[in-house]
């Protein structure tokens, strides 16, 4: 069994800007360079048949390359509005030539292809973001995060999205390590 997800990997200069902004929040488990990604679809545990079906389904996704841009900082609730489980950075949608938002369209196309191949995926609504830090199960008090969220500035860097990846998540001593199993190019813009 493999634990899988489909993701975009920001380029090195974007990851460097994100890594430079990390730190200064008590109990935060900051992501490392290998962990910085944008999840397009979460598959979870998959046997070898589901892995093969996912690979074939993802190869059928067709979309032109596009540009994305880093957006605002935010956080997810930890079961209570006054506590946060995760710090994240939004990735803004850039309108594609078809008039549809390219990032939203890519995620929808990937999810449709996986469902069409009978590969189970997480059904949560797609919110384009890159996770920066996670907190213990009880979460971090929002008051602790407020100053960091107000003071931290990450430039709205734009970057080309020319491929996506099927990624395996492997648990280890230092947390999850992500290993791409396959890459899928987008068509030239």
Protein described:
The chain has 189 residues and is an alpha+beta fold. It has one domain: Alpha-Beta Complex (Cyclic Phosphodiesterase, Chain: A), CATH 3.90.1140. It has 4 helices and 10 strands; from the N terminus they run βαββαββαββαβββ. It has helices at 12-21, 48-59, 102-116, 142-151, and strands spanning 2-8, 29-30, 38-46, 66-77, 83-92, 129-134, 140-141, 158-161, 163-172, 175-185. The strands form 2 sheets. Strands 2, 4, 5, 6, 7 and 8 form a 6-stranded antiparallel sheet that branches. A 4-stranded antiparallel sheet has the order 3-1-9-10, covered by helices on one side. The longest helix has 15 residues, at 102-116. The radius of gyration is 17 Å and the shape is globular. The chain starts with a strand and ends with a strand. The model has no long low-confidence stretch (mean pLDDT 92).
